[in-house]
């Protein structure tokens, strides 16, 4: 068996069908490259063949490159990487030429791509080398180049071809942002040529192949007098485009993502030379990125580790626990969001609130989200109708009968939640699993209100629910394996990534993000310039500075969390200085973005204008400021140390979940691969030295015993816990 099969029909059209055995989606391996190359040679060398269709036997075309290929290239160093990439370039260039005479540009055979569904990475770069791209009208399909999202960039000709096809400005969203489009959007953007009904896909591709002329087979960049759309770098218009792209990329990435700079380098330098030389430029830039530790860390966390968790790496070995009917109690922002994503996933949902009107408002939230999706072209009126039909809005708890999972998402008050749990248990079957969406309250304490504590579990969604990819599944002291399996099967059905943590106040994500916010606020109280704090965070790769983040989540929420934490910790409470700042702001009505005033000021439309000038009056800026590196070390290390403590204390039991959860949950410097990857990157000994340098700030920077042990033994998290 090979990854590609070959068939020649009576009309002289050869069909090469991609079908990797044992995979739900095709990926390109080294063996696959050789097999495809041999079949292309076979077709080009056979006088009976008039043209070729490359398609897939699966519902999708291809998901990208087999990462084992990348790992093998990396192990051989720069020479092996460059040679491997150029080998792939040679194959795709052969397809692009179609056997035509290189000088006369005649005598070639048409080679087209027929995408049955999703085509990502090499699954789109291969079609880009074909003479025409046909895409099935598959509403679930996504087409594009997402490599930048895992620390790479399209290095199999995707960068060079797309820039020459669309110009830098047109190609930028797909190269620099990893933007993916549905088939019709892709056709409108120029990424594919035609969208065809699935049942007519191969017939339409064959018709085009049989009618194609020599002129149809010559790509614009191979034609004499070719000019790049929007202008090349040395043209006045092109110069401004490339200059603006460089400035915007630097502003967005803050220089911590090598792949973003490399793709611009490949596009710029490649535009100054001929096409074949540009492919070498692209290969050189791709080699540089693969040799950078950032790519390895991002691939490990955002692809390998994330994929393992998505597939159920932490799921107990039990029969399927797919949710058939979901109950959601509480139709506020979080409850309505959970109900929406479940209904979108095809699950019947009962949404309960204190009144029918409140429940209907929750259902209306779903309608609003879907209306925006329709405007973007990612949903239809028919799909909206189907989603809303799966949702029942009611004030009657009896409607929860028949639910196999019920999630309560009511106010963060143990007494309120206990009352709701009792009302749920009065109407659901004994086998029903009960979940709580609390973000801070320990699950074990909430489960005490239940008659079936072993079936109570935490399922912590992040806001906004429809956009955030992470869900924390929290196991209480008595939670059984079936409850965990049910929660994981539910989260995976939503196409979100679950992490499983053990019960503790703030669980894992909030446990780490709250110290980050508090460290930023503490620095304000110390007299550190707020602009330095915010810029230091962004320059080290955090998506939001700590002051902006607390504005977004609301300062009154921070006040409530602080009060509850202080009540629980008593004399050991460490954040009195932080309280002095946030309580003062709250008293002045500066509650964050929602109030139009917080650490930042906002205009009437809610747009952030800048840091509030009044901060300097209440907390004067010190004459002597810390250097940028020290501020960055404080902000990163305070999060990383808390992650280590969570692992040390058994709250976190898998470092893969620690890294993936940190990036997806609160945006911990994605370039680093997550807190454990970052600590491995700098080394445990260097991390200890950093802690020592910060020790004068307080015991919060004292290194955990686990980190000290790793340093003493020259070990790392991923070497010691690789099999976790």
Q: What spatial order of strands do you see in the largest sheet?
A: 14-13-12-15-16-17-18-19
Got a strand count? 21
Average pLDDT number: 93
Number of domains: 3
Task: Give the CA-CA distance, first to last residue.
Answer: 34 Å
CATH architecture of the largest domain: Alpha-Beta Complex
CATH class descriptor of the largest domain = Alpha Beta
Give the % helix.
Answer: 40-55%
CATH superfamily of the largest domain: 2-enoyl-CoA Hydratase, Chain A, domain 1
What is the radius of gyration computed over CA atoms, rounded to a whole number of angstroms? 28 Å
> Could you tell me the strand content as a percent range?
5-15%
CATH topology of the largest domain: 2-enoyl-CoA Hydratase, Chain A, domain 1
Going by helix content, strand content and strand pairing, the class is alpha/beta
Account of the 3D structure:
The protein is α/β, with parallel strands linked by helices and 724 residues long. The protein has 3 domains: 288 residues, 2-enoyl-CoA Hydratase, Chain A, domain 1 (Alpha-Beta Complex); 181 residues, Rossmann fold (3-Layer(aba) Sandwich); 109 residues, N-(1-d-carboxylethyl)-l-norvaline Dehydrogenase, domain 2 (Orthogonal Bundle). The protein contains 29 helices and 21 strands. Helix 19 crosses helix 24. The longest helix is centred in the first third of the chain and has 21 residues. The two termini are 34 Å apart.
How are the SSEs placed, and which strands pair?
Layout: E1 4-8, E2 13-18, E3 27-28, H1 30-45, E4 51-56, E5 64-65, H2 67-75, H3 77-97, E6 111-115, E7 119-120, H4 122-129, E8 132-136, E9 143-144, H5 158-176, E10 180-181, H6 183-189, E11 194-196, H7 201-211, H8 236-253, H9 258-270, H10 275-291, H11 293-310, E12 325-329, H12 333-344, E13 348-352, H13 356-376, H14 381-389, E14 391-394, E15 405-408, H15 414-425, E16 433-436, H16 443-447, E17 456-461, E18 470-475, H17 481-493, E19 497-502, H18 509-526, H19 530-539, H20 546-553, H21 555-569, H22 576-587, E20 600-602, E21 608-611, H23 615-618, H24 628-648, H25 655-666, H26 675-682, H27 684-694, H28 705-712, H29 717-720
Parallel strand pairs: 2-4, 3-5, 4-6, 6-8, 7-9, 8-11, 12-13, 12-15, 13-14, 15-16, 16-17, 18-19
Antiparallel strand pairs: 1-2, 9-10, 17-18, 20-21
Helix pairs in contact: 1-3, 2-3, 3-10, 5-8, 5-9, 8-9, 9-10, 11-25, 12-13, 13-14, 18-20, 18-22, 18-24, 19-24, 21-22, 24-26, 24-27, 27-28
């Amino acid at each position: 068996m090979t990854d590609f099969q070959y068939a020649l029909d009576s009309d002289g059209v050869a069909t090469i069908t991609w079908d990797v055995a044992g995979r739900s989606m095709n990926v390109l391996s080294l063996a696959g490259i050789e097999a495809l190359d041999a079949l292309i040679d076979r077709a080009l060398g056979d006088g009976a063949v008039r043209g070729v269709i490359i398609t897939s036997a699966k519902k999708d075309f291809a998901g990208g490159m087999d990462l084992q290929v990348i790992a093998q290239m990396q192990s051989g160093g720069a020479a092996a990487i460059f040679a491997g990439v150029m080998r792939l370039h040679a194959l795709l260039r052969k397809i692009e030429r179609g056997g035509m005479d290189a000088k006369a540009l005649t005598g070639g055979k048409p080679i087209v791509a027929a995408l049955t569904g999703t085509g990502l990475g090499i699954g789109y770069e291969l079609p880009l080398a074909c003479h025409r791209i046909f895409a099935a009208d598959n509403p679930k399909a996504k087409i594009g180049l997402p490599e930048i999202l895992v620390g790479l960039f399209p290095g199999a000709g995707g960068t060079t071809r797309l820039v020459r096809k669309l110009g830098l400005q047109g190609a930028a969203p797909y190269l620099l942002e990893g933007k993916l489009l549905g088939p019709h959007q892709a056709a409108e953007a120029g990424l594919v040529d035609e969208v065809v009904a699935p049942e007519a896909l191969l017939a339409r591709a064959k018709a085009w192949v049989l009618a194609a002329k020599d002129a149809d087979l010559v790509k614009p960049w191979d034609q004499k007098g070719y000019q790049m759309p929007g202008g090349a770098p040395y043209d006045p218009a092109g110069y401004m485009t490339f200059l603006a792209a460089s400035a915007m990329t630097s502003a967005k990435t803050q220089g911590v993502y090598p792949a973003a700079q490399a793709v611009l380098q490949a596009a710029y330098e490649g535009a100054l030379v001929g096409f074949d030389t540009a492919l070498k430029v692209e290969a050189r830039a791709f080699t540089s990125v693969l040799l950078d530790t950032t790519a390895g860390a991002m691939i490990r966390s955002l692809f390998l580790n994330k994929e393992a968790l998505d597939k159920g790496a932490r799921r107990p070995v039990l029969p399927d626990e797919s949710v058939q009917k979901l109950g959601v109690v509480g139709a506020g922002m979080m409850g309505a969001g959970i109900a929406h994503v479940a209904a979108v996933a095809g699950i019947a949902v009962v949404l309960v609130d204190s009144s029918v009107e409140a429940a209907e408002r929750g259902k209306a939230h779903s309608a609003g989200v879907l209306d925006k999706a329709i405007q973007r072209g990612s949903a239809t009126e028919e799909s909206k109708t189907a989603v809303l039909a799966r949702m029942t809005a009611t004030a009657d708890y009896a409607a929860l009968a028949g639910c196999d999972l019920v999630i309560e998402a009511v106010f963060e008050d143990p007494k309120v939640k206990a009352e709701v749990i009792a009302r749920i248990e009065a109407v659901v079957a004994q086998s029903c699993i009960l979940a709580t969406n609390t973000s801070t309250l320990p699950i074990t304490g909430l489960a005490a209100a239940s008659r079936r504590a072993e079936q109570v579990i935490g399922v912590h969604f992040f806001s906004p629910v429809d956009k955030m990819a992470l869900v924390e599944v929290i196991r209480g002291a008595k939670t059984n394996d079936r409850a965990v399996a049910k929660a994981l099967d539910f989260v995976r059905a939503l196409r979100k990534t679950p992490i499983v943590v053990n019960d503790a106040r703030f669980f894992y994500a909030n446990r780490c993000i709250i110290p980050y916010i508090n460290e930023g606020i503490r620095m304000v109280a110390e007299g550190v310039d707020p602009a330095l704090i915010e810029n230091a965070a962004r320059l080290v790769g955090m998506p939001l500075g700590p002051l902006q983040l607390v504005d977004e989540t609301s300062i009154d929420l921070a006040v409530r969390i602080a009060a509850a934490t202080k009540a629980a910790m008593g004399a050991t409470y460490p954040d009195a200085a932080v309280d002095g700042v946030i309580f003062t702001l709250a008293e002045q009505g500066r509650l964050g973005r929602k109030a139009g005033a917080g650490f930042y000021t906002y205009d009437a439309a809610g747009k952030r204008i800048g840091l509030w000038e009044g901060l300097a009056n209440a907390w004067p800026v010190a004459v002597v400021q810390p250097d940028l590196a020290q501020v960055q070390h404080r902000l990163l290390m305070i999060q990383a140390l808390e992650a280590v403590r969570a692992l040390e204390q058994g709250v976190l039991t898998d470092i893969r979940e620690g890294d993936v959860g940190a990036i997806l949950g609160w945006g911990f410097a994605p370039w680093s691969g997550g807190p454990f990857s970052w600590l491995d990157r700098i080394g445990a000994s260097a991390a200890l030295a950093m802690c020592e340098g910060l020790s004068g700030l307080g015991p919060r920077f004292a290194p955990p015993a686990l980190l000290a042990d790793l340093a003493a033994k020259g070990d790392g998290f991923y070497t010691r816990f690789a099999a976790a």
